[in-house]
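Weekend entry, working from home. Most of the wet-lab plans are on hold until the incubator is repaired, so I used the time to fold the two sequences that have been sitting in the queue since the last round of cloning. Logging both here for the record. First:
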Amino acid sequence: MKCKKRARGLTIIGVMVGVAFTGSAIPTSVHLFAQRRAEDRLDTIVSNLAGIDVAAAQWNKDNHGGQPSRSTLDGTDGAIAHTKWPVGPVVGAYSIPDRLGSTEVTAAHHDTAACATFDGGNKGPMTRLEWQKVCGADPSSCGL
């Protein structure tokens, strides 16, 4: 005598377990996506600040010191453009403070204070190093 094996479909318990697993995974994945998006925004801001710092250092080298402005760095005053002025990944503005200081600043020197600032998010204007310190551990605390 041969036994025929019947094909069985999904049981209600199996469907409930699958839905419960999927339902519990969605909030975790949404949180991780939001965290990664905030980290990407922070990385963009820090790299834009570093680019402005490098352009300011190059401008100082080419012009034997002095105080660069946005128009002298991006070439809108007719001079050679040292950088294309970035826009923030969040609402805000990049700027250069009034005084650069006496030392030449480059993005390669992490112990040197950055010149450019970004006034965006909810923490106000900060330099590259300040953005890394304040927003690096929890970018969402800076409104990113």
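Second, folded right after the first finished:
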Amino acid sequence: MMNNKKTISSLKKEFNLLIEFLYANNLCIGHFDYAINSIGGNKMEITRPNRKNESNILYDEIVNVKNVIKELLERKEFNILLRDRSIIQFEFICENNIIINERFIYIRAFDNIDFIEEEYDDFDWFDIDKGIPLIFRVDYNEIEQPNHPRAHATLNNIECCRIPMKGPISLTEFMTFILKNFYDIEYNGEIFKYANIETITAEESKHIHFNWNN
């Protein structure tokens, strides 16, 4: 862990500031702090305490996303739970103080963009028969793979959907995107830039992709 102490400290600071902003603006109703695990050599995994391998669920074409979200909520498998019961998950792999792999996931069960004003403990949030479920995911891997952008976005559980991105992003950059584009809320906290590198190839840039100015 000592070899990754600086990066882990920065990630924790970023997470704490983000959580502080979300609670202060009544946008969040739950969260779990980072779980940090050694995965061999100088590699550390920074993730959520109740993490399980959900890839088979997310890539199952016949699965009902509402059932997936219900299961994730019951297992408390999230980093951040927004007031509309949308789930935020993220994880990093760090080696020698460099983030070599990251994933951010935003999952919303139904098309309700209004945050809940009151708590109803006995209300079934999945007994709402309207709206379009959504999964939005961002991945980054430092290792190049054929036909697989190192930084890319994926919509829902479409395995072949890999929209190239300019490069990897930070947690606060991801949350800024989510709050702005799905809730029309401006994040005015500190935005970290630890992932400020460009990985998109010339071939990938010929196609529609995510780009932005730093």
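Plan for Monday: verify the second prediction. The chain has four helices and nine strands.
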